[in-house]
Each structure stands twice: as C-alpha cells, then as structure tokens.
C-alpha cells in the first residue's frame, strides 16, 4: 500500500506545483486523447502518445514563449528526461491514463444515447 501512496503523493505534487499553463496543456492533451481513443483496449498506447505530445508541447512552449535556444534546450531537455525518476514518469502516466479513460467512457456513454 505504501507504493500506491507514493504514486498518489507524486501525482499530488505534480498537480499542485505545476503552473496553470502546464496544467491546461495537460488537460487539453488528455481530453483530446480521450476523445480520439477508439477503444479502452488502446489506453496504454494512447497514454504513451499523449505523454509524448505533452513533452513536445512543453518543448515548443519553452522555445517559443520562453525564448530558449532550440538546440541547447533540446539537449538540456533530453538530459532531464534521462535523469527523470521512474516514479515521476509513472505518476504522469497514471494521471494521463485516468483522465483519458474517464473522457473516453463519458464520450462512449453520451454518444450511445
């Protein structure tokens, strides 16, 4: 059970320490992925694609809005990814997967009726 609490605390830390633009981008990508997902069987693939999309949007945001040098920031971003703790990556994946699954389920229910 402590493993689940560790994941929950990491998710809570991500959601409470991120700025509003980042949270908005996360929500927008997860909502879009939930609407585009064909079946619940593709939740893992959809979550991975959503995480990659989130990373790319974060990179584009840093280069365009943050004024970062594109090649230097790409190297810095890649090194940050290599040093990423697995618990943080798992927390992002769980958060995205839950939102994607809820959106897909809601879309499926409302599209039937």
List keywords for this structure.
113 residues, mainly alpha, 5 helices, globular
Describe this structure in words.
The chain is globular and about 50 Å long. 84% of the residues lie in helices and 0% in strands. The termini are far apart. The protein is built from five helices and no strands. The protein is mainly α and 113 residues long. The longest helix has 27 residues. α1 packs across α5.
Brief overview:
84% of the residues lie in helices and 0% in strands.
Give the SSE map.
Blueprint: H1 2-17, H2 20-36, H3 43-64, H4 70-82, H5 86-112
Number of helical runs? 5
- Structure class: mainly alpha
Cα-to-Cα separation, first versus last residue: 39 Å
Q: Biggest sheet, open or closed, and with what strands and sense?
A: none
What is the ordering of alpha helices and beta strands? HHHHH
Look at the structure and give the mean pLDDT. Answer: 93
Poorly predicted ranges: none
Percentage of residues assigned to helices: over 70%
Radius of gyration: 15 Å
Beta percentage is under 5%
Number of strands: 0
Globally, the shape reads globular
